[in-house]
Design brief:
Length: 103
Amino acid sequence: MAFVEDLSAFIDEDDFGISATLTPSAYPHPSSKTATLSVIFDMQYVEAGNISGNRPVLTCSTANLAAAGIDVGARVTVLGNEYVVKVIEPDGTGISVLILERQ
């Protein structure tokens, strides 16, 4: 049976979400096509061997990403900072986590 829960309330800006502007990588000029999406922005703790730190991640609707043409290499502006999408991890429930790199 497919997962049918509506998770959009968790990302809504009235709850946990904030606004982010995303520009697809296929467009050479950042102003040529952008999408403003509700996302959850976090500095995720990561650990590898004896090295640990934080990495910026966005959690958002997979359907919204697809509709906006967002893929690896897309530009992201959130909280006044610029990032590039390095990895997209869809979780199979309609939510994706984007691993970002600050520019």
